[in-house]
Structure formats: C-alpha cells, structure tokens
C-alpha cells in the first residue's frame, strides 16, 4: 500500500463518482482506502434530513477547517473519517439523497432480487444488501452485505461484495456469502471468486469454499450445486454457536432467542433439516450440555 494525499474535496468527488480512472486507481492503492470505504458504506445507511443547499457548503468547509486545524496533527485518520461522516450527516452534497437502495429480509424469510445490471441475488433471512444506484449506472457494481446471500452475477464489469470481514471481486459467477459477526464463509458454485481481507487474498473455483472463524482460515470442498440453505438444510463443521442460533431463528421464524451463561464461541458440528424445531434444538443443545425452553415465539437456552 502507498501513501496518497487527499482532502475533503477529493473525498466528496470520490463519493460522487467524479474521480478519473487514474485517480480512482491511485486511491484504491492507498492504505486508508478500505477503511474509508467501510465508513462510506455505513454512513450511506444514515437517514438524511432535509437541508438548505445554500449554506451546506459553508457548513462542510467549517467542519473540515476545524477537523484539520485541531485534530489532523495528532489523529489524521480520525479527522478524515469525521469529515466523511460530516459530509453524509449534513446531507450537504446532492449525491447522497435518493441514491442508495437497501434490500432486506426478516427472520424466517428469503427473497429474490434482480439487481440493476440483471444479476440475481437471493437473500436469506435477517440479511441486507446496500448499494448506490449511481455507481451501478457508471458500471461500478458495488454492494455491502450483512447476513447471507446467494448471487448469480451477470458478466460485465467488476462486481464487488463488501462486508465487515472481507471483500469479494468477480466478473461473472455464482457464489454464496455468509457474513455474521466474526464468521465469514464464501462458496463458489461457478466461475472464480477473489476474496480479500487484511491478512489473505484467495481465489476460489467451482466446488471450493473458505471460512474465516475468529480470524482463522479454513478451506473446504463441496459437491452440491446450490447452497444447502435453499433446500432447507444446514450443515455445520466446527461452526460457532452464535451462527447456529442465528440460523435456527431463520429456519423457524423465531422472534427472539435468549441465551444465559452460554459460550457462543463454542463450536458445533452437525446437520439440521428444517422440519421439527424441538428435534433441531435437541440436536444442537444435548451435545453442548445446554437446555432450552420454548415460550410462544421465544427460545431461552441456558448452560447446564
């Protein structure tokens, strides 16, 4: 990574897709790029109030001035991040309003979406996709994912899926991504998938998968042609309990799952089929020395 000089005006141009190809390339090689991308994506989800365009420019300039004069000498990255968030929350640049699309699902439901380029995205329960419409019009296919999604990507320009755990780049392929807390799994069903995070850069081909569990990398192979969850089957191999419990809520549309003195980092290995909630709970809880109670649409799980 290289050092790259940028100011608030440059960041505003970047957020508005007004950089030249060379400027963007140079910026992407900057050591702060990934951090700023995450800030931009999260800030894009803020609800933006109505604003007066006539005084917004002065407000942003003042915010930037104070950030530079008081903060930058000691905490440069924090100052830049603050400037980015100020730009978003002030609502002062017209590229923010009405240009972000958020696709979501609730517990227990999955939905199929057609993306602006014709690509296919099927969200599993309690998941979300966020993208900026203008980027797609400019052939910059960039999404932010939380939860789980199966993609069938139409061939074209680079297609990027970002989560808190890593970045995936493809041109045209089929793959599944599960991003929950510190757990991150990618399965490639067709074509190639390039996965990057702070520590690794991996290319997956058809029938290969990778999991990041608390920062550790685990590779595997599979033979199924679509994700198991699409057939109401969930298979786990040394998977943290918090991920398993999240899936249980999705399987059976459970409003609330409460744990008491349970180590959610414990690893579970097994197979669950969506047909019997009590059976599923017994499969998970008994080998982990846990007990459960069902109260209407709430599950309480405790350590014995």
Automatic annotation (TrEMBL):
<keyword id="KW-0812">Transmembrane</keyword>
<feature type="transmembrane region" description="Helical">
    <location>
        <begin position="74"/>
        <end position="96"/>
    </location>
</feature>
<feature type="domain" description="FecR protein">
    <location>
        <begin position="102"/>
        <end position="193"/>
    </location>
</feature>
<feature type="domain" description="Protein FecR C-terminal">
    <location>
        <begin position="234"/>
        <end position="301"/>
    </location>
</feature>
<dbReference type="InterPro" id="IPR032508">
    <property type="entry name" value="FecR_C"/>
</dbReference>
<dbReference type="InterPro" id="IPR006860">
    <property type="entry name" value="FecR"/>
</dbReference>
<dbReference type="GO" id="GO:0016989">
    <property type="term" value="F:sigma factor antagonist activity"/>
</dbReference>
<dbReference type="InterPro" id="IPR012373">
    <property type="entry name" value="Ferrdict_sens_TM"/>
</dbReference>
<dbReference type="Pfam" id="PF04773">
    <property type="entry name" value="FecR"/>
</dbReference>
<dbReference type="Pfam" id="PF16344">
    <property type="entry name" value="FecR_C"/>
</dbReference>
<protein>
    <submittedName>
        <fullName>FecR family protein</fullName>
    </submittedName>
</protein>
<keyword id="KW-1133">Transmembrane helix</keyword>
<keyword id="KW-0472">Membrane</keyword>
């Amino acid at each position: 990574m290289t050092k790259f000089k940028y100011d608030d005006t440059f960041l505003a141009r970047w957020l508005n897709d007004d950089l030249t190809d060379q400027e963007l390339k140079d910026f992407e090689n900057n050591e702060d790029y990934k951090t700023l991308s995450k800030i931009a994506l999260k800030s894009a989800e803020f609800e933006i109030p109505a604003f007066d365009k006539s005084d917004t420019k002065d407000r942003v300039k003042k915010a930037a001035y104070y950030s530079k004069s008081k903060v930058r000498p000691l905490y440069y990255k924090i100052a830049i991040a603050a400037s980015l968030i100020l730009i978003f929350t002030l609502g002062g640049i017209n590229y923010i309003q009405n240009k972000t699309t958020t696709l979501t699902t609730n517990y227990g439901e999955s939905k199929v979406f057609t993306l602006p380029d014709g690509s296919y995205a099927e969200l599993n329960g309690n998941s979300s996709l966020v993208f900026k419409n203008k980027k797609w019009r400019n052939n910059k296919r960039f999404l932010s994912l939380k939860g789980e999604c199966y993609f069938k990507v139409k061939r074209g320009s680079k297609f990027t899926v970002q989560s808190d755990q890593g970045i995936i780049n493809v041109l045209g392929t089929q793959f599944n991504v599960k991003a929950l807390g510190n757990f991150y799994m990618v399965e490639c069903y067709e074509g190639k998938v390039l996965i990057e995070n702070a520590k690794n850069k991996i290319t997956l081909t058809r029938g290969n998968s990778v999991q990041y569990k608390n920062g550790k990398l685990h590779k595997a192979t599979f033979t199924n042609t679509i994700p198991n969850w699409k057939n109401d089957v969930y298979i786990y191999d040394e998977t943290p309990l918090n991920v398993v419990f999240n899936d249980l809520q999705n399987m059976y549309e459970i409003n609330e799952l409460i744990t008491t003195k349970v180590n959610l980092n414990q690893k579970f290995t097994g197979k669950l089929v969506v047909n019997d909630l009590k059976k599923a709970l017994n499969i998970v809880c008994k080998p982990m020395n846990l007990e459960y109670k069902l109260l209407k649409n709430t599950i309480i799980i405790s350590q014995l």
